[in-house]
Amino acid sequence: MPDKRIIRFYKPYGVLSKFTDTEGRPTLADYIDVPQVYAAGRLDKDSEGLMILTNHKRLSTRLTEPRFAHPRTYWVQVEHIPDQAALRQLEQGVEIGDYRTKPSIVRLLEEPPDLPPREPPIRFRKSVPTAFIELTLFEGKNRQVRRMTAAVGHPTLRLIRIAIGPITLDGLAVGQWADLSVHERQALYKSVGLR
Questions:
Q1: Count of structural domains within the chain
Q2: Which of 44, 98, 170, 179 is catalytic?
Q3: 114 an active-site residue?
Q4: pLDDT at 1 over 60
């Protein structure tokens, strides 16, 4: 077993991306019983999906420092069906407060992805259609995806991070974690410029 632990975790909705909380809310400690690993980046309480946890400080820095600009991919359920103009805006960058987002990769998914149900479920309104977009960012501002979709008139209803660089949720159930395989570790190291 390598001394550097690298874990991928499918964070459920409503779970904080830290190990302790003075208010008694659900945290990573409710799911992960591995000592001395820490989240390499955050995921909002009301977002779901992939997190990487590690005791490898250099890797954690590469995954969290903005200058390394590694890709993070999300499936985003939004209100209404975005047109090409809205998708192009997201792709080119939008104003969120006093900041303009960097270019991203965006595509409208033709079919909703196969996802486990969320507890609690999203609000559903018959008169408001929804759509899923796949959005890959190369930066990580606070609540950035939600702020971006709102800026183009399509509020986010559900947000799932499906990939961090080459690491994906594949094979994980909600609330489940697994150590990275040798192949996954090598791919992740390569993607962030580590040997």
A1: 2
A2: 44
A3: no
A4: no
